[in-house]
Amino acid sequence: MPLPVWLIPLAVKGAAAVAGAAGVGTAVHGAAKMKEANDTVKLAQSCHEDNIEKFEKENNSTSTAMDKLGKLELEILHSFSEFSDIFEQIKNRPVFETYSKNGIILPKYNGEKIKEVSVGAGVLLGGLGGAGLGAAGGFAAAGATTAAVMALGTASTGTAIATLSGAALTNATLAALGGGAIAAGGGGIAAGTAVLGAATLGVGLLIGGIIFNFTGGKLSDKADEAWDQMKKAEKQINTICTYLDDLKKISNMYYASLSKVDDIYKEHLNGLKSIVNELGHKDWNTFTKEEKKLTENIILLVGLLYNMCKVELVLKAKEDGDMNTINKEAIETSVNSAEVVIADKFY
Questions:
Q1: 269-297: per-residue pLDDT in tens?
Q2: Is pTM, for the whole model, over 0.70?
Q3: Of 26, 81, 305, 342, which sits with the fewest C-beta atoms within 10 Å of its C-beta?
Q4: Is 74 within 8 Å of 136 (Cβ atoms)?
Q5: CB 162 within 8 A of CB 94
């Protein structure tokens, strides 16, 4: 039945009101969804920043411990020049036997190698002043003995590394040790340092290219993508933080073992200085039994320290973007060897 003419305007008005209400409802719902999406993106970004902060804290702590170890190793290697200078003054020295006991073999004294590694270590120590967090630790990660020899080599630019200074010298050596995966100036390191100041070449040697997976760029502005990206990065960060904590503990343990041997070495070095420089005994044939024993033992200590500083604490990942692994077996073997030699010869 058609509406009376006088009712038509009211019906149209009512329909418009209903349509308007529906439109407002849709708009309100859309605004709510938009706010929810924005909140999700903000929460994802906040969580990501918290995760990065967690990583930075763990990384700083571990890098500090590794730097402490790396510096000690370089100082020990550098001190070999003093030993060599004194030892070379002794005439009529015999050929000292290689220490081989309980599966432990220490290298024979090689004056040329000792001087080479000592000079290289001195070069690296001189460059640490301008280096950032993780640099000395990077040398420990790759093996300080290897790093010291590498410092006397040539950078990728063709420049002799030893002619460089400060951060340039340190970075050139770290880049040579790290290879292409973390080469200086590469896209990975640039992306990493853009967000994470501690993502240096040294840190790359500690952890591997995986650190650049979550430190480069920003999260998506799409809610679902941003959340998924954050969760993926969070999983990687948690794995890396566990790894860093393990590395910190084992580097502290290795530092304690190395320090113990170094203390004994310093005592013997002072004793040798007294024999040669103060007493003037420079002919092996005039050495007393005790003086000969001290000299033989310090040669063992130099070989032991050389081997300990040669250990790679970290094994580089085979693939770019993967995480490195802690060289636990070699570290434990080195510590055990030190304990056996000390117990056998010094207690």
A1: 999 999 999 999 999 999 999 999 999 99
A2: yes
A3: 26
A4: yes
A5: no
Q: What is the mean pLDDT of residues 33-50?
A: 84
Task: Output the six-digit token pair for 114.
Answer: 């000792």
What percentage of the chain carries pLDDT values higher than 90?
A: 41
Query: What's the residue count for the chain?
Result: 347
DSSP track, 35-104: HHHHHHHHHHHHHHHHHHHHHHHHHHHHHHHHHHHHHHHHHHHHHHHHHHHHHTT-BS---PPPPEETTE
Q: How far apart are CA 38 and CA 312, in angstroms?
A: 47
Confirm if 125 and 152 have CB atoms less than 8 A apart: no
The answer to whether 127 touches 170, Cβ cutoff 8 Å, is: yes
Whose CA is closest to 58, among 314, 252, 229, 237? 237
Q: What mean pLDDT comes out for the span 167-185?
A: 55
Checking if the pLDDT of 22 tops 80, the result is no
Tokens of 92: 């009529």
The rounded distance, in Å, linking the Cα atoms of 229 and 237 is 12
Q: CA 262 → CA 56, 146, 292, distances in Å?
A: 32, 19, 20
Of residues 275 and 19, which shows the higher confidence score? 275
Domain ranges of the chain: 9-345
Helix pair 111-127, 289-310: axis angle to 10 deg:
50
Q: Residue 217 phi/psi, 5° resolution?
A: 80, 180
Q: Cα dist. 133→27, 56, 61, 151, 206 in Å?
A: 53, 11, 10, 19, 12
- CA distances to 5, 74, 126, 290 from 297, rounded to whole Å, are 120, 21, 30, 10
| 293: its two tokens | 């024993």
pLDDT in tens, 202-258: 666 677 666 656 555 567 778 788 888 889 889 888 988 999 999 999 999 999 999
At 209, the amino acid letter reads G
When pLDDT is cut at 50, 70 and 90, the band that residue 72 belongs to is very high
CB 166 within 8 A of CB 174: no
Tell me how crowded residue 311 is: count the other CB atoms within 10 A of its CB.
Answer: 20
